[in-house]
Structure formats: C-alpha cells, structure tokens
Write a structure and sequence with these properties.
Rossmann fold; 292 residues; seven-stranded mixed beta sheet; 11 helices; single chain
C-alpha cells in the first residue's frame, strides 16, 4: 500500500529504511578511516617521482575491490558528463589513471555495504540532500588550457548527486546555479533545485520528508555562502536548518567549516557543529556527523 510523503506510516517506513540501509556508525567510521588511508597513500604514490612501478589505478586498488568498482562506476559518469560539453569533444583525455575526488569516494564507499558492477542499486530507498551540489554550467575560467579535466572540474559539476542517484538513492541537489543544457548536454537523473544559500531555510520549510543523508562538501569556502555566513554563529544557524530535516538515524557529511590549521580552529569546528545539533562519528579530512 502506498503512503503519502509526510504521513505517519510514510515516516515510519522512512525510519525503517534508514535502519535497514545505513551501516552502523562504527562500520562507517572504520570504512571512512580506511578509505582516507588508501586514498592518501594512493595520491602520494601517484605524485612520487620517480615511480618505479607504473601501476594503473585499478591495479593499485586491487586489494580494495569495493573502492575499485565504485571508482570505475563513477568514472563512467564523469566521462559522459565531460564529453557532453562540446568544448571537450575531439580532445584526447587519458582516463586510465583517473580517480574520483576523495570526498566522492568517501561518501559512496561508506554508504555502500557492498558494491559490484552487477548490483548497481545498493542505495535504493535512501533519501539524500546534497547542499551545494554544483551544476553543469560554466563556473570559472579555466586556469590550464592544456588540462581538460582541470577545466571540467573547475565548473564544479554535480558528480556526487548523479552518482548517488544512479546508485539508487532518491537525491535532491541544491545549488545557486542551474544545469545549463546549452553548455552540457548530459541529462542528469537527480532532482536539481536552484536555491541560494541564504534562502535555504525557507526552501526547507517546503520539504515534508526527512533525509537519511545530507552532505555539505566544499560549501563553506564558496563566495555565495561566505557573503551571508561569515561567523561561527551564522554557520551554526545555517546548519541548524539542516538538522531539522535529517532523520533521527541520519548522517551529515561535511567539510570543515573552518580550516583546522590550529587547535583553536579544531575546537571551533566542534563548537559550530555542536551548537547546530550534530556530533561527529568520524573526523578526518572530512566530517561524518549524526544528529544529537
């Protein structure tokens, strides 16, 4: 029997989904630590010169089959997105050693208990909100005309949102920019909503359901955010709005609000999240938090 969003039975079903789908916090924290370690070692080895053993990314990830499969899956989405822009057509780009951005792999790896290319919908039933998801439109002038991938990533494409949707999650991505069909011909499958950061509170009031996962990667350093939220108190106020729409068993994935370059800044980040109603279950380069 179907239920309307926001109904009692609908909310109860949503909570059952959360308990059934999301791994336990201990498992997520352990997975996050391993992923960050693997990626740190991998990126270090790729940057090392000279590199005595020229292994491909797939070979380097051979001992981490889930990470390898997720990277291969996500890379195909990146290729299709990029190639949908006529500006990149006809140019040779080597994707053999391409690896997804660390925050992308951290997110999808910790949410997926298992993954292989024969079962590409492991997140079915999960509801996700991506704050500052990016957009398929021109964002900034390319800094390096010889690096096409750098040009593509400079546009801050919504890779996270699209991968989550393709993995089965019901994903809403919000961003101040729209997906521009005249620039990128790729048809996204997630729901893109144009929302200014300052308008987030009012927009969230229109949402009836709770989200199992909310992300806030690389939001706090965007000029459109800093213009309105330039103090710890204002950032906490912004995050409190997200706390209202996350499910009791939900998770919030985030960048650090303030660069953790000193013990004082580390403490300030904890204060910002705590005042907003979140506590960390994992703290590395990125935060994974649960509602208090």
């Amino acid at each position: 029997m179907s239920t309307k969003p926001g109904s009692i039975s609908g909310k109860r079903t949503q909570q059952i989904f959360s308990r059934r789908i999301l791994p336990k916090t201990e498992a997520i924290a352990a997975e996050a630590a391993q992923v960050e370690m693997v990626l740190r070692n991998l990126l270090y080895s790729m940057a090392s010169l000279p590199n005595p053993v020229a292994l491909s990314i797939d070979e380097k990830l051979e001992d981490y089959p889930k990470l390898k499969s997720l990277n291969s899956f996500g890379k195909q989405i990146v290729i299709r997105m990029m190639r949908s822009n006529p500006a990149f057509e006809g140019y040779k780009v080597d994707f053999k050693d391409h690896i997804l951005k660390p925050h992308v792999l951290l997110l999808i790896s910790t949410l997926c208990n298992t993954f292989d290319l024969m079962n590409t919908s492991p997140l079915t039933g999960l509801k996700v909100l991506e704050v500052g998801c990016g957009a398929l439109s021109t964002y900034a002038a390319a800094k390096d005309a010889h690096d096409l991938l750098a040009q593509f990533y400079a546009d801050h494409p919504p890779i996270n949102s699209e991968i989550l949707q393709m993995l089965g999650a019901q994903t809403i991505g919000i961003d101040p920019r729209a997906n521009c069909k005249d620039t990128y011909r790729y048809q996204t499958s997630y729901k893109h909503r144009i929302v200014e950061f300052v308008d987030l509170e009012n927009w969230l009031k229109t949402i009836e359901d709770k989200f199992d996962v909310i992300t806030g990667f690389h939001v706090f350093n965007r000029s459109s955010f800093l213009y309105h939220y330039d103090s710890p108190e204002q950032i906490s106020r912004f995050l409190k709005n997200l706390r209202k729409v996350i499910s009791p068993q939900g998770l919030f994935y985030s960048s650090a609000p303030v660069l953790p370059i000193s013990p004082e800044n580390v403490e300030l980040n904890h204060q910002i999240f705590g005042d907003a109603g979140f506590r960390p279950i994992y703290e590395g380069h990125y935060f994974i938090l649960e509602p208090i």
